[in-house]
Design goal:
This protein is of the alpha/beta class. It has one domain: Alkaline Phosphatase, subunit A, CATH 3.40.720. It is 34% helix and 15% strand. It has 13 helices and 15 strands. A hairpin with a 2-residue loop joins strand 11 and strand 12. It is globular.
């Protein structure tokens, strides 16, 4: 069965070189409509009514852990300073401590913790130390999920990043850049290169199955400054005529979001067009925050339309030395992560950590604002935010910083696990929850069902 025929045709609007997925509507999802009529505790829609989407967001270079880790466990904890931007969503996520990533340790291979942290984070595997083409790692949890769930969606998975760096050669001493710049691995030797260009990611969502035609149509739209929605007007009018008032309102909100995202991408491209050729990609955006928000919005749109159920997003690769002058940190992130207990450097790293959490709050808020059945899109997501390093000063791979958001998680609390539980144990339980049971992920030793509601 082709991927196009693996999902209901009526959930898509088709035009020249264009395939626009609709959000889940009562009209196109009668089973979901019936199931969603029965709310669970807290008003969340029945879990079986909608698919679970999963995303991993990676923030580099560890954390100032004393500003990250809550002092108390359970529900009555106080948000530490770094996590304060999430105050409005405290009941929508859990802080989890005690997870470990042993394959990121040297294990006799010497330096290269940043490359290993990135590489091992979703694979649970220790990378072969090589700067050449003979890379070897393991299949990442997102691609284990995508191999099964991807047959039911337009895209098996989506990989996003805010770094446009070379993916060949050596980045961390003795390790190929492929390890340091990729979270997602389809096989032991094939990384899934993440997309850094929001326009290209947008076109993946809305392009037709004919990639050549889609590219030509996208270029034409850009030249004429028209929306992707203008190419599917006939289908849009036909389906709108058969919708109820609630679905029409939902569809209008969705169209507005698509057009607004296109406009913002266009503004970013206009900024880039005025820069010298070859300018480093992050500089093409008015702000780093603009770039992050565009990528978060694309990921949310992909999940809202069920274009994919699996995503990864790299805010910055481990070892990256981006500066943050807009929050008062002109220093390179990696440089000051080795703070050697200098209070001034610690304070600056904490500001970067908090900035990243502010952007996560934007994403959680976005998912929570999108209605799905009697609940929200966030109710039907599992979002993991964290890093393969806890203490960036000493390159510690134990007690990882980890936030888990979404309906299937035991949210609203600080969950403290036994020391050094492999993070891959959580991945095994996650895969069970989304219908992809797997006996082993990387270095997993069991499951971690206690985190799930």
């Amino acid at each position: 069965m082709s991927r196009e025929n693996a999902f209901p045709r009526r959930t898509f609007l088709r035009g020249l070189g264009t395939l626009v997925a609709l959000p889940m509507l009562d009209y196109v999802s009668p089973a979901a409509r019936a199931l969603a009529a029965t709310p669970l505790a807290g008003g969340i829609a029945a879990a079986s009514a909608f698919p679970i989407r999963v995303a991993w967001v990676y923030a580099p270079n560890g954390k100032i852990m004393e500003n990250w880790t809550p002092a108390a466990t359970g529900r009555d904890y106080v948000l530490p300073k770094t996590l304060e931007p999430l105050a409005d969503y405290k009941n929508d996520f859990a802080v989890v401590t005690g997870l470990a990533l042993n394959p990121a340790n040297a294990l006799g291979d010497g330096g290269g913790d940043h490359a290993r942290a990135n590489a091992a984070y979703l694979t649970g595997c220790h990378p072969r130390k090589t700067a050449g083409a003979d890379i070897r790692l393991g299949i990442s949890v997102d691609q284990i999920a995508a191999a099964k769930l991807g047959t039911q969606t337009k895209l098996p998975s989506i990989e996003l990043t805010c770094d446009n760096m070379p993916r060949t050669g050596s980045c961390d001493p003795g390790y190929s850049c492929a390890y340091q710049l990729n979270l997602s691995w389809r096989s032991e030797t094939q990384p899934m290169n993440p997309e850094v260009d929001p326009r290209a990611a947008f076109e993946r969502l809305f392009g037709d199955t004919d990639a050549t035609q889609s590219k030509e149509v996208a270029a034409r739209r850009a030249a004429l400054n028209v929306s992707v929605l203008d190419y599917v007007q006939a289908d849009s009018k036909a389906i709108s005529a058969r919708l109820g008032a609630a679905d029409k309102r939902k569809l209008d909100e969705y169209y507005t979001a698509v057009r607004e995202l296109e406009t913002r991408i266009g503004r970013a491209e206009d900024t880039a067009s005025r820069l010298p050729k070859g300018t480093h990609t992050p500089e093409m955006f008015e702000t780093y925050q603009q770039q992050i928000h565009l990528m978060y919005d694309i990921l949310a749109l992909a999940f809202q339309t069920d274009s994919t159920r699996v995503g990864t997003f790299i805010l910055g690769h481990d070892g990256g030395n981006r500066s943050y002058p807009f929050i008062g940190v002109p220093d390179g992130h990696h440089d000051i992560s080795h703070h050697r207990n200098d209070p001034a450097k610690i304070a600056k790293v904490a500001l970067i950590n908090r900035f990243h959490i502010e952007q996560l709050a934007y994403f959680i808020g976005k998912l929570k604002s999108i209605k799905e059945g009697n609940g929200t899109l966030l109710d039907n997501c599992i979002i993991q935010y964290g890093s393969g390093i806890s203490d960036g000063n000493r390159h510690i791979h134990e007690n990882l910083p980890c936030l888990l958001a979404g309906g299937p998680i035991k949210t609203g609390q600080h969950i403290k696990l036994d020391t050094d539980v492999p993070v891959t144990n959580f991945y095994r339980s996650l895969l069970d929850r989304i219908g992809v049971p797997t006996e082993k992920v990387g270095d997993s030793t069991g499951t971690l069902d206690s985190i799930f509601a």
